[in-house]
Design a protein that fits this description.
Length: 383
Amino acid sequence: MNAFKLRFAIGLIILIGVYLVSQGIYKRNIAVLHRYTDDAIDIAEHMHTAEIFHSSMHGMLISASRFLKEGNSSFKEQYREHAESADKSLRKLKYHEEHVAKEDKDRGSELEVIDGVIGRFGEFKKVINNRAFLSPSGNKADLETAHEMFDDIFQNYYLKLHAYHSAELLSLQKDAHDVEARMNMYFIAQLILALLIGISVIFYFDKGVVKLYTVTEQLSIKDALTSLYNRRYLENYFDGEIARSVRYNHSLSVAIIDIDDFKKYNDTYGHHTGDKILKDLSAVITKNTRDIDRAVRYGGEEFLIVLPETVKSSAIMVAERIRASIEAQPFILPNKQLLQSVTVSIGVASCPVDGKTSNEVIRKADDMLYEAKNEGKNRVKGA
């Protein structure tokens, strides 16, 4: 029973350990995926800001061109709005990259690109903000120069920044796929391990239940002190054996054993010594009986042996062998003192000659035991 409890506890600990480890792994991977999602959103927002900057620059060129062509002051106002939007976008890009670069040194190249954009954009604005350019008779050559600068910023800075962002998104996508693959692998491994543990627990649990049932059954039919069968077992077993003996006309014998003067051992040495005598004597009885025989603790110091397929003369021989073995057995007290010879008296009866019911046979054997006691004890008596 203790071994089963240990196995069950180990299985339970392993199962709980696997659960906790798997939960830790899943929690960690989910946290990583959350971080990747945040990074992807951040990059997408950065790309959107860069798109706004690009559109604002383009709007500045269109507004300036329309102003030079038509001289309408509303285009000049549109130009200023686009310029403010471009400046705001650049500041946002700059702030973002400076913040990220503090945590990730590899992002320094992107910060250099944005610094380059800021420098070129400053030059771009100087060209467009030329006073002669912002008048109806402005210098169209400056507009051409601004277009060239716009193309330069787009080709050498904006596309490079866009490439950085695209590469970061691809890297995040690959990392997310790797996490997904690991989680699938962990799930399969966890499932297999859980199944193995479950099968093992069920296997050991099944064995444990069988063992527990066996132990419980043994406890219900065995005497706790002597490990012989108890009277409850005798009542269920003996009637069936008597019925079989009568039905098939087979002999069945019974021997009732009583320890002579057992009370004096308890009074002289204490009940602890009496219990030891009962245990040692039970071992002698078990040694001198067959597997098909049933030795029962019948009362306090009384024992009953059921001997199937045994005629009375053979049963008397078995009883005499038991009596002689007990008389010759050295009984050692708990204090290591050697006890003087312990003797028993035995009464023997048989079915069907002495009775055809369990009560009749046991009563006859008990009468024989009484005669053995009256004739001087330490003897076997048969009808």
